[in-house]
Amino acid sequence: MEDKLMIIDPHVHMTSRTTDDYEVMAAAGVVAVIEPSFWLGQPRTQVGSFQDYYSSLVGWEPFRASQFGIKHYCTIGLNSKEANNEALAEQVIELLPLYLHKDNVVAIGEIGYDDQTPAEDKFFRMQLDMAKELDMTVQVHTPHRDKKAGTIKSMEVCLEHGLDPANVIIDHNNEETVKEVLDRGFIAAFTIYPKTKMGNERMVELVRKFGSTNIIVDSSADWGVSDPLAVPKTASLMLKRGIPKEDVVKTCYQNALDAFGKNGKMKEEHWMKPNSIDQSQLFNDNSVLRGQKPRIDDDQIT
Amino acid sequence: MAYMHVSKDIYEILSSCAEQEAMAWLLDRIAKIEDSRTTRDLFMGYSLLASKFSADQSMESNPKVSDAITLFSAHKASLLEVSRIYLLVKVLEIDFGHFSPQVNRIIEVADTAELETFLKYLVLLPDAQRFKNTAVEALRTNIATIFDAITLNNLYPAKYFNDQQWNQMYLKAAFMERDLSLIQAVDERANKDLSRIISDYAHERWAASRNIDPMFWRPVTKFIDDVLLLDMERLLSSDNEIENRAGGLCCFYSQDDRALKLLNQYPKLEKQIASKEITWNTLKK
Questions:
Q1: Tell me, what's the ipTM?
Q2: Peptide bond into A90 cis (omega under 30)
Q3: Mutating which of A99, A101, A108 best tests the B interface, going by the most B Cβ atoms within 10 A?
Q4: DSSP, residue by residue, A24-54
Q5: Radius of gyration over every alpha carbon of chain B, rounded to an integer in angstroms
Q6: In this structure, how many other beta carbons lie within 10 angstroms of the beta carbon of residue A241?
Q7: DSSP output for B249-279
Q8: How big is the A-B interface in CB pairs under 8 Å?
Q9: Cα(B118)–Cα(B34) distance, rounded to whole angstroms?
Q10: What does the alpha-carbon distance between residue B173 and residue A61 come to, in Å, rounded to a whole number?
Q11: Low-confidence ranges of chain A (pLDDT < 50)
Q12: Do residues B150 and B159 make contact, with C-beta atoms less than 8 angstroms apart?
């Protein structure tokens, strides 16, 4: 297709999605995704549940994505909701460093505040210290309630812990928070939710008003009502509404690559010169196929 | 072979290749771990190795030979791999009882590249038999690089596997068509049960008109019975010259009268084997 844009969705919980989603995402131009570690809709009660979840984010899920021609990265961290189980959180924090250096881990995330409790604060700070020591990018989840104050507090705490704001992505922004985030030199990500919160018509107007520097669009699609095509659909709407292509490329591709590519693990060559898709490969004896004929692309796209 | 002063040997080879700054950081970090004994210092230190030591730079060969160094150069180990093994060996030497649960945890959550490293050099860890579960679990994988890491050019299985585990490894290596000549101590670990398994597997393959790597037969040498004697006859009369040689080698070293008598019918081959012109090492040359 002429002029088809390459898209990165830098916040999508693919663990909760089906192979149909991978197929339509690839068809819509999504070349890479970043899967932040988050909660799974119900709190975990054992550190082993976290361990197996993180292991799937660095093992099985990248393999599954590769079967559909999509490069999968992830961010590893203890989410704010589950930070409130302090005894468990201590054990999870202890485990985190063993994942942070792995091949597809591009940042510590998504971490931050939910109800802005003292426990959330404690574990957020511990993870910021880790980011500082390991020189890693941070992906911050901002709260749904008391959002503006929570967002400002998140940024202040990051600065207090000596992080470079250019290396911190503040996620789930809206019209109320974006200016503060950009003015302080942080990167502002926007989650496009269907029906509620940040719809993509609003996103178009935001880009018109604030431009494309340090602004990233994502879907945050997960196990709830959400749209894994939110980024390509927003890109398409922006073009229709007359936003210059250059700005669309920056907000739906390049800025995410620049922000999450800093530690050198996320590279354009991963999808520009991909290994051809080979669905006959097995990972630990499991295939994503259930009796279908494997699709094998012999030729690389040049 | 006993690995004495392992961490000292590894330190020498690592410091001869790595940057001074990285080595200074590593020594400092180990002192910190030794002092605090916390899981956090160990895990953070382990994680940081990836940013201090190159995964792309291989160890240069070093004239000073020790067992550990030979092992690293045989596998073309990267600096990152050597630094990872050094850290694990070092903390286990400092206090095995205290640090072995953490080392186990590091191994448990390894990704593919890390697991390959651990398996290749498992034999260097102090009290290495305590890590046997990891080694045996690796036999169940279908990822060829993981299987190869424990099976090929590795002394760990010969040293620590029981017969059942050894036989499982040997058969799966043949099944996965790995290079059997790279398995260490095949003669020493040969056993009667394995020779029965080899014969059964061969009959299965023959029934399906499929070939078998002639190298596969080596462990039956000391266990020739009635069934295997017929297998030897088949090998010696085969059209495949390498099968002839494999059969000849098994018979020659069998110390079994009937097998030796069988080999007498092939005087040229017998002579070549007696003169060491043909050995298991030159089987396919």
A1: 0.74
A2: no
A3: A101
A4: HHHHTTEEEEEEE----SS---SHHHHHHHH
A5: 23
A6: 13
A7: HHHHTS--HHHHHHHHT-HHHHHHHHTTSS-
A8: 50
A9: 22
A10: 28
A11: 1-2, 299-302
A12: no
pLDDT for A289 = 67
Q: Which residue has the tokens 């992906």?
A: A139
Q: Are B129 and B160 a contacting pair, CB within 8 Å? A: yes
pLDDT of residue B86: 96
- Neighbouring C-beta atoms of residue B74, cutoff 10 Å: 11
Are A95 and B47 in contact (CB < 8 Å)? Answer: no
Q: Determine the residue of chain B that is closest to A129 in CA distance.
A: B44
Contact A130 B50 (CB under 8 A): no
Write the DSSP symbol of residue B94: H
Joined together, the tokens standing for residue A181 give 């985030």
Q: What is the dihedral of CA A59, A8, A290, A49, to 10 degrees?
A: 40
Question: Is B142 touching A (CB cutoff 8 A)?
Answer: yes
Residue B2 pLDDT: 47
Task: Provide the shortest C-alpha distance from residue A299 to chain B (in Å).
Answer: 24
* 8 A C-beta contact, residue A11 and residue A222: no
Q: What pLDDT score was predicted for residue B6?
A: 86
Q: Do B47 and A94 touch (CB under 8 A)?
A: no
Nearest to B199 by CA among B148, B233, B155, B249: B233
pLDDT of residue A274: 73
Nearest to B111 among A96, A103, A135 (CB): A103
Q: A280 touching B, CB under 8 A?
A: no
Q: Minimal CA–CA distance to B205: which of B161, B171, B165, B182? A: B171
Instruction: Give the CA radius of gyration of chain A.
Output: 19
Please identify which residue in the block is written with the tokens 């910021």.
Answer: A128
Beta-carbon contacts of B229 under 8 Å, excluding residues fewer than 6 positions away, are: B258, B259, B262
Which of B28, B108, B111 is the best residue to mutate to test the A interface, defined by the most A CB atoms within 10 Å of its own CB? Answer: B111
The H-or-E segment that residue A231 falls in is helix A230-240
The token pair at B205 is: 């393959």
pLDDT, one tens digit per residue, over A110-147 is: 999 999 999 999 999 999 999 999 999 999 999 989 99
Residue B279 and residue A196: Cα distance in Å, rounded?
Answer: 76
Q: Do B51 and A101 touch (CB under 8 A)?
A: yes
The conformation of residue A59, written as its DSSP 8-state character, comes to: T
Residue with token string 């099944």: B175
How close does chain B come to A221, measured CA to CA in Å? 26
- Token representation of residue B191: 């056993």
Query: Quick check: B262 and B234 in contact, CB under 8 A?
Result: no
Closest CA to A104 of A131, A130, A66: A66
- At B216 the pLDDT is 97
Given a cut of 70, the residues of chain B with pLDDT beneath it are 1-4, 61-65
Contact A132, A162 (CB under 8 A): yes
pTM of this structure: 0.80
Are the CB atoms for A231 and A192 separated by under 8 Å?
yes
Interchain contact, A133 vs B44, CB within 8 Å: yes
Residue B43 at interface with chain A, using a CB cutoff of 8 Å: yes
